[in-house]
Amino acid sequence: MASSGCLRLYCPTVNSPLSLATKNALRNKRRTVLTVLSIAMSVFILGFLMSVYHAFYISHGGDDQALRLITRHKVSLVNPLPGSYLSKIQGVPGVREVMEEQWFGGVYIDQDHFFARFAVEPEKLFHMGAELECPEDQQKAWMSEQTAALVGRPLLERYGWKIGDRITLMGDIFPVDLTFTIRAVYDARRNNENLYFHYKYLRESTTVGRDEVGTFVILVDSPQNVPRICRAVDALFANSSAETKTETERAFELQFLNYLGNVKVFLIGLCAAVTFMLLLVCVNTMAMSIRERVKEIGILKTLGFSQGRIVGLVLAEAVTISIVGAAIGLVGSHLLCQKIANGPMEFADLKLLHLPVSVVGIGLGIAVLIAILGAIPAWAAARRPIVECLRVVD
């Protein structure tokens, strides 16, 4: 029965290579399904982790972000800087604009309703962040009213706000409750869930930190001048009572991940572990399947099939199973990335999280590697003498 099944399965006049690969894969449906699912789950985890790594450490927010620097206190972000630093930073060659920015914190309703709240200089914000899109009439309304607020559209939609609504933030860092009127809504590809309000409103509402600033946002004239300007700004305040650390906006954002530990090493280590387990389990499963067919390979050699043809048929089957599993896993990674990107911001801005083409290529490449390694026993069996193959007991 095994011999006749093998003859029907591999008849070259009836079956195409793809058909042969598909029929071979479906001979043991349970094993094939479990192999596909194991590959899919492993590639799903690997694809997502690599996408997160790409979003944090490889991708960038665009040309506008490359022109922005953040100056903070050298010791800690908690320590403020003197407001008088602004004019000195403005005098550094290559600096186009400097804006004061203060994290307000505060509580809206309760601690579960978290979003970023910044006090800024309204007349400079849209110049500093050219990627912010807001109707001109709304911009003017926000700038002309000291108690006005500018909010990101996702934030507006989440809480059901509309222009003209009044909201109150209860102070925690600053001992003052501030009430705002929503006058403008902005759209952006990233950092689109913030609330911005007038720094002057905060200064006039409390005496705490009135002449101090949390950070300075610097707009430079060219990305090539970034290293020089960082050094020049920090040199201005070296050996002062409030020394500074100036870095790119991207580097400033990534430092918040450091509170969770060495995220980069964690992601790399986890990706390596998943890849190793994927290769170990799936390659072993495929190899076991092929080793069970040594007698059939002997029959094929008896019928005149060449060694290359036999290995090609087995490899086609292995590639089919691996690619199907990898494709399912990558689709799952893509959907998860979309879900997170469209969700609310938490500890990091993941609005640009997506499944990069490079990650897709790596996932499919690993699937092909699994197929090649899993098909090695077929190459070894195809080299064995026919009599030796036929002696193998199933």
Describe the structure.
The chain is α+β, with helices and mostly antiparallel strands and 394 residues long. The chain folds into 2 domains: 2-60 and 261-390, no CATH class; 75-242, no CATH class. Helix content is 53%, strand content 15%. The chain contains 17 helices and 11 strands. The strands form 2 sheets. The protein has a 9-stranded mixed beta sheet. It has a two-stranded antiparallel sheet with strand order 2-9. The two termini are 12 Å apart. Residues 1-14 have low confidence and may be disordered.
Give the gist of this structure:
This protein is of the alpha+beta class.
Oligomer: single chain
Largest sheet: 9 strands, mixed
Helix/sheet category: alpha+beta
Average pLDDT, to the nearest integer?
82
The percent range for helix content is: 40-55%
Tally of separate helices: 17
Rg, alpha carbons? 31 Å
Distance between the termini: 12 Å
Assess the beta-strand content as a share of residues. Answer: 5-15%
